[in-house]
Amino acid sequence: MDFNNLLGLFKKNEIEKDTESLEISFLDIRNYNFLSNFKKLKKLKINGEGVLSKKDYDYFNSLGISVLEFNKPVFDIKVFFPCSYLYDSKKYYFIYKDMLVIIPFLNKRESSKVNLCIEDEKDLVKLSSYINIKNIKLLNVFYLNTKVRVSFFKDSVSLFINSKDILEVKKLVDYFVSIGKKIDKLDIEMEEVNDIVSNLEVINSIKFNSCYYYSSYKDNVYSFKLEKNNVMVIVRDTNPLIIKEIYDYLIIKKFNISKYEVRLYDSDKYDNDYSSLLYISKNTDLVIKYDIVSQCNLDEFLRYQETIRWYRSLITDYSLSPLEKLVYGYDIVKTFKYNESLNDKYLARIPHKIIETNNIVCVGFSYL
User: Fold this and answer.
1) How confident is the model at residue 120 (pLDDT cuts 50, 70, 90)?
2) Strand 99-104 vs strand 113-118: parallel, antiparallel, or unpaired?
3) Are 105 and 137 in contact (CB under 8 A)?
4) Following CA atoms 47, 49, 50, 55 in sequence, which dihedral angle do they give, to the nearest 10 degrees?
5) Would you call 287 helix, strand, or coil by DSSP?
6) What's the mean per-residue pLDDT of the chain?
């Protein structure tokens, strides 16, 4: 019996009226207007290979079909974007308007990884029903401007969350706790340092073993590693007022600061006055990192800063051409004679120690 005769038989026996699920081949949908006769059709499965256009998908959606599934890969998935979607090791799940489109992969992918992208909140429930948490080890979620990465272990999870809303973070953490998962590690990223600092108490109320909480704003980075009421702070910012404000807030909120690391990576570190941080160094383990490898305490940095200013004044206080400045700078560096420290190799390689001890080797010259 050919396909047209089969449709005629359906119509004669009024099968079309109550049919909710239908499975057909790509050959059968060359003229798919017949589908409009299936008034209650909710699920359509298409077998075989072929290519459909956006117009085709719009037609299926207009019929009220809620699930469109293919048994073979479809090579025109770009027509769905932007959209909410999910993919695991076997299939794509796209939300196209009001319709869920399921497409298998051409080749199997990593079996324990799931990626979920949510463009509209109402799509979350529909897609999440296809996630089996028991069978995955890594879940990546992209929701509007929020990114979440969940690493699953036997009895715990590790969470990375990029979010502006700390209460949304708490909801997510509470969810995993409610299903019996311990929060082994919690990484939270926010855009504004003020958002981070003002929400530290909320974060500290969340159940976790350790938390790395940070903000990346322009070229500055602020991070807080929390363990109960202890906090280790890293501030990459050359503004002494910001450095003080963060510290003072933590003290007011009765956090025990186990380490306060200040990263002065920008060139204005030699111009700013950091003597206002002396009270921090007296009460806390204050570490100054002034390049990727060099670190010291505040007293050492202030002496180093003053020396650099003096050397710089030898060049900037005179009306020198660019070439003359370069030559003069070279002559200053030449005053340091190659000399390896017998007691501590560190002394000849780190700028502030080179200036203090006059020990310098090749690496030290490159840092100067």
Assistant:
1) confident
2) unpaired
3) no
4) 40
5) strand
6) 80
